[in-house]
């Protein structure tokens, strides 16, 4: 690293240090707020966003113009685009967060010990949470709202494609926080170069947790470079396994919904495994369904053959395709001789996100549930249900694919830590 | 790094990779065991240790001889020493673990969604857990026992001072696992050089969690070098704050017990803060108590002065001493004008482990509980109660001082992750 790069990184470190210290100071205030105060503030933030809708849409238009100039695909433009209706929906999400129970102060467990000490484990905010994300500017608002409700100060690092939108949103939120008599530094935006990310993920002792949310490259870079605790999110090579005892009508619905209902997200299915005993009956139908929806298919030889017989194009599949998260209308398809072979395949290619079995056989589903290692195991349901909103959490900050701290959809409780409180009358240890 | 070092590290990586793959395979088996099977195996392990007591004590004698030759202090020799009685006590710890409830399978929460999907979050083993520790060979047995009960395969890396003891213990445990018809690779010992540690903490995808347990240097090295998830443990700069509303008799007992009952451990107090209003009454007494117990005292000017008036030697304190975890008979002593000043001091010098307030004033204790950021906040009780055994967990794998996943004493539940199980009848997303 040359001297100029060093100097730039040092500048980022200083900026992040300052931001984190202001965040720490704000977090002390946030940790002590009552639910009523937090909910009232969320309402003020929501109103402020609606009122600033014009400025936010204008800032977003400038992001979109820059994106178009740089050749941003229409699908990405659509994810980035904010309209007055979308801003209103984003503001409503804050009101919904206000309606959720306060995670802070919840007593997780407790007891009175033999010596009379009363112990209880209570949820407390993490403190200062960093969030690094790409794409959609609504994540900025969701993160700020979930952070406020869980008593955390948030340091946000959005994608450069949404820089103007994020800047305007955070400006609006900070002004609203002050209006609510809360510290503006409860929400901060880092807008420097990549050095800011490096500085954020190595700010040990200043930042309590970093959550990366985005593509595989972003998440890998954060996980490998971080020295602060990280929650890994979102890579989903999701399988649907259709057992020999599946209700094949249910299976067709689930495969189609899992793959095509929203193919760009992490809980969409990428791979279909079919038990050999039902392959000849099931595959021609489901391949036809998928093909009709525009899904490009990659299959093992038997799948290619069954496709050809039914007049459906299936390319030969590679291991890379079995390992891929397509994020689009592509699907790998395999035939397995046994349930065990399906579990082995998932163990080899899965990413511990969501795995689905379709079966009416109780012992098969029990085995699948017990042996498949994933954040979410679904029986006879679409993989698309792995979602904080669908699980009833009211909102979602990401989907954890690691085993530490949080697994699956993360919302308010997952943004808290705990503290043990021990109360006595002078007990000492013998 | 030169080529020879590279080659050695690559060799370690290969060895750790092989060990982790064997551990993964064993962990699949462990994850499916019933409580009855695990408890029976723990009994067989305990019996095997008792039967091998002679060999274990002999191996330990060889560690001790090497230690004495290298000038190991008597206190460390005592921590390392195994006698037939100590081996019996270590074996009994396994029987106690067998008596604890099985954490695996516990339903943490669950509900039925509006669409009829039944969701439940269930505790599952982490999978493969690495543990890096120094000092006492009983940790080897505790880790193996807690790992087995929680369904995890353990890769252990003990300190070189206990190499022969650990090797004999693990040999005994592995033979007993086979006798119990379980995979021996549920417990493995890494006995290579420091490269093994580097390889273990960077074995992403192979190792689910690493827990370092030992001195500050070890823990820092692991936390900074790791790319696998880590739980930071055990650095404790523990404060006892004696409020102006303290029962001073209770306060003397708590200060003395917190500092001297076992000064070498992380939950021993290192620093005493006294409210100015009671300093003149309280300090001469407690400084006398501490001095009589052989505690070397470092104090702020008023403390030095009060000590001198009472004929007790108190050296002027430095910020380094206020920040230090002495692990021995030394204590820093400060006088604070207010409760807020005490909280600020703890915020500056504390390590988020255990903080104690002695007070009969309800608003003071409530404020201390709410505002002090620590794994454990004690009111009118000795800091020595921060301990898995004391909390009723039956055993302890370490004390987490981080906020992610686990905070405070860690036992069986903290060695588990969770899995969401979603059961439906063909539900798809609209």
UniProtKB/TrEMBL annotation, chains A, B:
The keyword NADP applies. It is found in: Cytoplasm. CDD domains: ALDH_F18-19_ProA-GPR. It comes from the Bacteria. It holds the Pfam family Aldedh. InterPro entries: Ald_DH/histidinol_DH, Ald_DH_C, Ald_DH_N, Aldehyde_DH_dom, G-glutamylP_reductase_CS, Glu-5-SA_DH, GPR_dom. GO terms for molecular function: glutamate-5-semialdehyde dehydrogenase activity; NADP binding. SUPFAM superfamilies: ALDH-like. It is an enzyme of class 1 (oxidoreductase). Signal peptide: none annotated. PROSITE patterns: PROA. Its EC number is 1.2.1.41. Keywords: Amino-acid biosynthesis, Cytoplasm, NADP, Oxidoreductase, Proline biosynthesis. It catalyses: L-glutamate 5-semialdehyde + phosphate + NADP(+) = L-glutamyl 5-phosphate + NADPH + H(+). Belongs to the gamma-glutamyl phosphate reductase family. Catalyzes the NADPH-dependent reduction of L-glutamate 5-phosphate into L-glutamate 5-semialdehyde and phosphate. The product spontaneously undergoes cyclization to form 1-pyrroline-5-carboxylate. HAMAP family: ProA (MF_00412). This is Gamma-glutamyl phosphate reductase. It comes from Metallococcus carri. The lineage of its organism: Bacteria, Bacillati, Actinomycetota, Actinomycetes, Micrococcales.
């Amino acid at each position: 690293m040359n001297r100029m790069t060093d100097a730039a990184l040092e500048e980022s470190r200083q900026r992040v240090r300052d931001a984190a210290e202001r965040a720490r100071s704000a977090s002390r205030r946030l940790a002590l707020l009552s639910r009523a105060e937090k909910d009232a503030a969320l309402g003020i933030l929501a109103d402020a966003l609606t009122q600033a809708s014009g400025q936010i849409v204008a800032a977003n238009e400038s992001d979109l113009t820059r994106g178009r100039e740089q050749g941003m695909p229409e699908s990405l433009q659509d994810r980035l685009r904010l309209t007055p209706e979308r801003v209103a929906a984003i503001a409503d999400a804050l009101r919904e967060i206000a309606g959720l129970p306060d995670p802070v102060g919840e007593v997780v467990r407790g007891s009175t010990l033999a010596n009379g000490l009363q112990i209880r484990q209570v949820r407390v905010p993490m403190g200062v949470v960093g969030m690094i994300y790409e794409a959609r500017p609504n994540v900025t608002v969701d993160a700020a709202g979930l952070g406020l409700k869980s008593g955390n100060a948030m340091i946000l690092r959005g994608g450069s494609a949404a820089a103007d939108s994020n800047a305007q949103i955070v400006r609006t939120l900070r002004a609203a926080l002050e209006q609510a008599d809360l510290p503006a530094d409860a929400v901060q935006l880092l807008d420097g170069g990549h050095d800011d990310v490096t500085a954020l993920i190595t700010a040990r002792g200043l930042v309590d947790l970093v959550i990366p949310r985005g593509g595989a490259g972003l998440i890998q870079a954060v996980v490998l470079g971080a020295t602060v605790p990280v929650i890994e999110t979102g890579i989903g090579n999701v399988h649907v396994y259709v057992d020999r005892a599946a209700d094949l009508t249910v299976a067709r619905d689930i495969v189609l919904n899992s793959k095509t209902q929203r193919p760009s997200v992490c809980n969409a299915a990428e791979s279909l495994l079919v038990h050999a005993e039902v392959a000849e009956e099931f595959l021609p139908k489901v391949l036809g369904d998928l093909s009709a929806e525009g899904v490009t298919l990659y299959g093992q030889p038997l799948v290619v053959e069954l496709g050809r017989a039914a007049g459906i194009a299936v390319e030969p599949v590679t291991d890379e395709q079995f390992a891929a998260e397509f994020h689009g209308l592509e699907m790998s398809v395999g035939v397995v001789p046994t349930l065990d072979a399906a579990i082995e395949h998932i163990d080899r290619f899965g990413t511990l996100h969501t795995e689905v079995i379709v079966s009416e056989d109780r012992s098969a589903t029990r085995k699948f549930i017990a042996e498949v290692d994933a954040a979410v195991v679904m029986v006879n349901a679409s993989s698309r249900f792995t979602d904080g909103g669908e699980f009833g959490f009211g909102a979602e900050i990401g989907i954890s694919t690691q085993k530490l701290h949080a697994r699956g959809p993360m919302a308010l409780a997952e943004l808290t830590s705990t503290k043990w409180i021990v109360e006595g009358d002078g007990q000492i240890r013998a």
